[in-house]
């Protein structure tokens, strides 16, 4: 444990440095957005990586003595589910280098009973998120749409400049997410500014959220390392009430497996 | 479980799982499930839900094994982090749901979140009981228990205890440092 971090913050309030989150992160006591941001910080901060590794072992102690035997049927259920998923997750034991990309292609799928239950749960969450986002839309911001970005494609520009473009913006911990929808073009563009890079092995996945709480994948956010990322969402935005962003295992999931980092409402 | 030999075996197993070794996965499951299930039951306080979450955790282990980085901590710490996150996700979505239903059925919000009385009574958690309890101050213990066993974020802990954010962060950090020292047998 390096002394710097141990002595750094006794100040209260919001003005702590990002290093101060190391212990709360190790204890898993941060929200999804802070976790994402801190993991981005961890990639660059050896001191915090060391602190987290050390304090995580203390956290391990917190579940000592709580052991309970699970019901006997669980083992077979889990092993069966893994065996069913195995061919897609690990096609070639002899080629471990392929592991990452192969694993990335295998979200959800045959684990339907688990996946569907999860989807149902998240459905309720999404519904709440969409409703909350609608309430929170005070902050529609005028932005420099259509400025000439090297990475912009014609499709992005078309949507941004569409006559019927509807724009919404949400801000989360310093990141700004704009969503622009053109019903005439049947296209939606998401512009993310200052979003931290997703943690290793994960992607930001985009979702059209419908008013019954269902979420339909709209593709992944490209990892281009820029401060500003523009992406045309896959699929037809008709009927969606919000666009959500979640962190998913690399390659994406069929249904959201985590709570949204942000949900941007779409105007009816 | 936390012996060096056990720790090393778990790390080896996770690497094998990352390469698609189902036997290694089964062995990893057998070695670790009581620990995971116990933690998840403790957080959710509901065995049926804990079963579902525990199954999800092990499917995540299978899918994410190649993201385990030994430099970031032990394989057990990695596993328990996955388990804790899943359990807390469940608590939070259940909480969001029960908040909406609270006006009609206030009873529903009680089981999972009635922790303050325990803290007031000074009841010690089983996990903490085994280590370092004498070393932790009551305020450190309260912050850590609320966060870890109740699934609150440090911001929620600050609200619950009505103390500044910085204070909660400090209590968590100092508490974990003490626990760690205790685990290491009082190393400086």
The side-by-side strand order for the widest beta sheet of chain A comes to: 1-2-3-6
Radius of gyration of chain A: 21 Å
Biggest interchain interface, per-side counts: A-B, 76 and 82 residues
Principal-axes geometry of chain B comes out as globular
Radius of gyration of chain B: 18 Å
Instruction: Report the mean per-residue pLDDT of chain A as an integer.
Output: 71
Class derived from helix and strand content of chain A? alpha+beta
Number of strands of chain B: 0
Q: Identify the CATH class of the largest domain in chain B.
A: Mainly Alpha
The oligomerization state is heterodimer
One letter per element, helices H and strands E, the order of chain A comes to HHHHHHHHEEEEEEEE
- Number of contiguous helices of chain A: 8
Query: How far apart are the termini of chain A?
Result: 53 Å
Q: Describe the biggest sheet of chain B?
A: none
- Give the mean pLDDT of chain B: 80
Strand content of chain B: under 5%
- How much strand of chain A? 15-25%
Count of separate structural domains of chain A: 2
Please provide a written account of the structure:
The complex is a heterodimer of chains A (268) and B (188). Chain A is α+β, with helices and mostly antiparallel strands. Chain A is built from eight helices and eight strands. The longest helix of chain A has 24 residues. Chain A is globular, with a radius of gyration of 21 Å. Chain B is an all-alpha fold. Helix content of chain B is 73%, strand content 0%. Chain B has ten helices and no strands. About 12% of the residues of chain B have low confidence. The interface between A and B is large, with 76 and 82 residues.
List the helices and strands and how they pair.
The complex is a heterodimer of chains A (268) and B (188).
Chain A: H1 3-8, H2 22-26, H3 32-44, H4 46-61, H5 73-89, H6 99-104, H7 112-135, H8 154-160, E1 166-172, E2 175-182, E3 187-193, E4 202-210, E5 215-220, E6 228-232, E7 240-249, E8 262-265
Chain B: H1 4-18, H2 22-44, H3 47-64, H4 75-101, H5 110-113, H6 116-121, H7 126-129, H8 138-150, H9 154-161, H10 165-183
Helix pairs in contact in B: 1-2, 2-3, 2-4, 3-4, 8-10, 9-10
């Amino acid at each position: 444990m390096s002394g710097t971090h141990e002595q750094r913050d006794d100040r209260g309030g919001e003005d702590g440095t990002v290093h101060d989150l190391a212990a709360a992160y190790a204890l898993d006591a941060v929200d999804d957005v802070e976790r994402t941001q801190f993991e981005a910080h961890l990639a660059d901060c050896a001191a915090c990586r060391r602190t987290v590794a050390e304090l995580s072992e203390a956290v391990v102690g917190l579940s000592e003595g709580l052991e309970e035997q699970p019901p006997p049927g669980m083992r077979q259920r889990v092993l069966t589910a893994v065996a069913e998923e195995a061919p897609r997750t690990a096609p070639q034991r002899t080629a471990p280098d392929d592991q990452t990309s192969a694993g990335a292609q295998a979200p959800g799928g045959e684990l339907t009973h688990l996946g569907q239950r999860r989807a149902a749960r998240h459905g309720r969450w999404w519904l709440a998120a969409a409703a909350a986002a609608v309430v929170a839309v005070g902050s529609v911001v005028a932005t420099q749409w259509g400025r000439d970005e090297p990475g912009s494609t014609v499709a992005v520009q078309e949507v941004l400049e569409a006559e019927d473009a509807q724009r919404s913006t949400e801000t989360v911990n310093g990141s700004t997410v704009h969503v622009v929808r053109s019903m005439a073009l049947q296209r939606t563009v998401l512009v993310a500014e200052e979003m931290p890079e997703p943690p290793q092995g994960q992607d930001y996945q985009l979702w059209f959220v419908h008013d019954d709480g269902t979420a339909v994948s709209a593709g992944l956010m490209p990892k281009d390392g820029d401060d500003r990322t523009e992406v045309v969402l896959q699929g037809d935005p008709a009927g969606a009430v919000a666009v959500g962003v979640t962190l998913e295992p690399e390659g994406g999931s069929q249904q959201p497996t985590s709570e949204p980092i942000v949900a941007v409402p779409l105007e009816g | 479980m936390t012996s060096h030999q056990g720790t090393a075996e778990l790390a080896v197993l996770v690497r094998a799982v990352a390469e698609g070794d189902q036997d290694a996965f089964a062995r990893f499951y057998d070695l670790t499930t009581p620990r995971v299930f116990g933690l998840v039951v403790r957080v959710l306080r509901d065995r049926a839900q804990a079963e579902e979450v525990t199954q999800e955790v092990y499917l995540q282990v299978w899918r994410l094994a190649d993201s385990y980085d030994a430099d970031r901590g032990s394989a057990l710490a990695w596993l328990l982090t996955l388990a804790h996150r899943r359990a807390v996700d469940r608590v939070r979505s259940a909480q969001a749901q029960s908040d909406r239903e609270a006006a009609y059925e206030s009873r529903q919000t009680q089981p999972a979140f009635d922790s303050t009385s325990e803290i007031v009574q000074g009841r010690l958690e089983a996990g903490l009981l085994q280590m370092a309890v004498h070393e932790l101050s009551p305020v450190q213990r309260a912050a850590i228990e609320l966060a870890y066993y109740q699934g609150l974020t440090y911001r929620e802990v600050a609200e619950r205890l009505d103390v500044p954010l910085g204070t909660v962060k400090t209590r968590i950090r100092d508490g974990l440092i003490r626990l760690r020292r205790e685990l290491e047998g009082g190393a400086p």
